[in-house]
Design a protein that fits this description.
The protein is mostly helical. Helix content is 63%, strand content 0%. The radius of gyration is 15 Å and the shape is globular.
Length: 144
């Protein structure tokens, strides 16, 4: 009998870059992450709060989506696919305000509920909340 993971630290970790010959379970994980990221950004681009920020900053959507798929794959499954510095990127976006983090979490949770059927559902939401709590004061200032 398998136990359901309680946190992202207990999820099975892939530990290697994604390529065409991944085992089926890893392919399914990566496909789910891709669907989630695509859905979230689909919602975000149409959102009156987040949309203008996304559209004003992202010029190459396929490249951005692939980077975000790599980020979440690395964050949840430790695949090592992402090598960026998200805090530094977000610090350079002067128009980010606390309400952007609030709305980002709302849309992220909506996308997770709609798309994710695996054991990663709870860790994906929990990690997003931790990221927002950590990043908001560093991006918007210490009072947030």
């Amino acid at each position: 009998m398998t136990q359901t993971p309680r946190s992202f630290h207990e999820l099975p970790l892939a530990g290697r870059p994604v390529h065409a010959e991944l085992p089926l379970q890893e392919q399914e994980r990566e496909a789910e992450i891709a669907r989630l990221v695509d859905r979230f950004y689909g919602l975000g681009r149409e959102d009156p709060v987040l949309g203008p920020v996304f559209e004003g900053r992202v010029s190459d959507w396929p490249k951005h989506l692939e980077a975000m798929r790599g980020f979440w794959s690395s964050a949840i499954y430790r695949t090592g696919r992402y090598h960026g510095h998200p805090l530094e990127v977000h610090r350079r976006i002067a128009e980010i305000r606390p309400e952007h983090f609030t709305r980002w979490l709302q849309l992220w949770e909506q996308a997770v509920r709609e798309i994710v059927r695996s054991d990663a559902r709870t860790p994906l939401i929990a990690m997003a909340h931790r990221m927002a709590e950590t990043m908001a004061p560093k991006v918007c200032g210490p009072s947030h």
